[in-house]
């Protein structure tokens, strides 16, 4: 098995960041000028507009509320991805164009993937929101690491001077860095999960209204189900084991944080893998066709 296949989340994330720009569906939706401009607001558009407005007029307040923005960004945008992708695929089915697209040489999966990416790249909202989240996460991690290094240097100077003083600031900074990484990975997995739900729902539904009913319901069920399972395993169970074994101290606490981050990533990775297999099954696609769809260039 190639290393790329060890993490389906980032394989699909990389494919989302490298869309099939030469596919006719993608060109029609994203690259070619629209005959009639589409109107309407989207959640991602509102979030991007909010950040841009706050950065121009109230940057200090933006810094304070950015952690809360990042916490809900993945969940909200993943929900929108599920609705938009499923809606566009069902619209193609309603217009009787999807069957024709599925008969093209790349196959049904390539057509679905082109529709999926074109819906996300419309008005370049996927790229803009990704850059906002990525830049915010990188800045937060950089700040935490700089503080941890400074505190570590101070601790070493105190140790070498034979002073008896503890500076328990390094491990909280490392824990905070792990939390920021978890928030960013959750945003990535939520986007991928929403896209997978958007690909699966049209294979069971037949009308555009299904995208507004089933897509958000399935997405929220999977997300909150994964959160609940994570709370059960990574919070309750690990706390019980932690107390029974008498683990204490900074290194033990940091190890628990790393385990919790790993468990959240692993749970959602399993869900994404299951949805991807379902997409292949429902589109009657072979693994070779999947590789072609995800790597068209």
Describe what this molecule looks like in 3D.
By secondary structure, the chain is mostly helical. The chain is built from 11 helices and no strands. It has helices at residues 8-17, 24-31, 43-57, 59-94, 98-102, 108-121, 125-160, 170-200, 209-244, 250-282, 287-294. α4 packs parallel to α8 (170-200). The longest helix is centred in the N-terminal third of the chain and has 36 residues, at 59-94. Residues 1-6 and 162-167 have low confidence and may be disordered.
Overview features:
single chain, 297 residues, globular
Short description:
The chain has 297 residues and is mostly helical. It is 78% helix and 0% strand. The chain is built from 11 helices and no strands.
Succession of helices and strands: HHHHHHHHHHH
Structural classification: mainly alpha
N-C termini distance: 22 Å
Low-confidence stretches: 1-6, 162-167
Radius of gyration: 22 Å
